[in-house]
Design goal:
The protein is of the alpha/beta class and 225 residues long. It is 31% helix and 28% strand. The termini are far apart. The protein binds 1-O-pyrophosphono-5-O-phosphono-alpha-D-ribofuranose, zinc ion and magnesium ion (MG).
Length: 225
């Protein structure tokens, strides 16, 4: 099992947040070497282990107290919180701070030829998404009923493949939508990266290390402003 004395930080293994997450930790003086084949990386100079996992897994790992800290997008955090609230699972965490990278938005996008006026245009249509709870919250508030199509990946090809009429997915530069003949019709959530902490009480020395990292992060971000 894990060495409970070492601080465990979950970061995205590969994707939009990976490089910036590692850069941030290195900027805080945490030294480590990544072996691409391994899930875990031990810091050489601090009692810290980095867990390199899928971004979607990070909120649950923190809420369940499997790891102490997580660097993740507010999009996956909010989605997991809504999911857990609806199923009665533990969903508490402390948000330590928003970070200055990973900006994106969760948007509904429709094929170019679709005539969109407002969200009522979506009535009765099938929308593919990896964010069913955020999509549902938005459309339920607008009293629009729609059909689900849960896809964990390749969401952007769903309309062309005939699986769905439209999608609800993350947009960063917009290149993915454009490449797939889709047009953004509604922004439903804006997101940045953030750092969160597990709700489980920490030993004093571990909490002191968390506080030190957080104050260094504040310094790193302030220096850039
Ligand atoms: C998102 C989204 C698109 C892409 C959009 O995936 O699913 O594939 O980014 O970016 P663009 O507007 O710059 O083209 P992401 O890599 O964030 O996460 P995932 O691998 O968990 O889907
Ligand atoms: Zn993901
Ligand atoms: Mg993707």
């Amino acid at each position: 099992m894990n060495d409970n004395k070492r601080l465990r930080i979950a970061i995205q293994k590969s994707g939009r947040l990976s490089k910036e997450s590692m850069k941030l930790l290195k900027g805080c003086g945490v030294k480590f070497n990544i072996d691409e084949r391994r899930l875990i990386a031990h810091s050489d100079n601090m009692p810290i282990d980095l867990l390199r996992v899928r971004d979607d897994d990070i909120p649950g790992l923190v809420m369940d107290g499997v790891v102490d800290l997580g660097i993740l997008g507010e999009n996956v955090l909010e989605e997991e919180q809504l999911e857990r609230q609806s199923t009665g699972k533990p969903c508490t965490f402390d948000k330590l701070r928003q970070l200055d990278f990973g900006s994106c938005r969760l948007s509904i996008a429709m094929p170019q030829e679709f005539e969109y006026s407002d969200s009522s245009s979506l009535e009765g249509l099938r929308i593919a998404s990896s964010y069913p709870n955020l999509l549902n919250r938005f459309l339920a508030a607008k009293q629009v009923s729609y059909l689900d199509c849960m896809l964990k990946g390749s969401v952007e090809v769903a309309p062309r493949s005939g699986l769905a009429d439209g999608i609800c997915d993350l947009v960063s530069t917009g290149a993915t939508l454009e490449a797939n003949g889709l047009v953004e019709s509604e922004v439903i959530f804006r997101s940045k990266a953030c750092m969160i902490q597990s709700p489980i009480a920490q030993a004093d020395d571990k909490q002191a290390l968390i506080d030190k990292i957080l104050s260094r992060i504040n310094g790193v971000i302030r220096a850039k402003e």
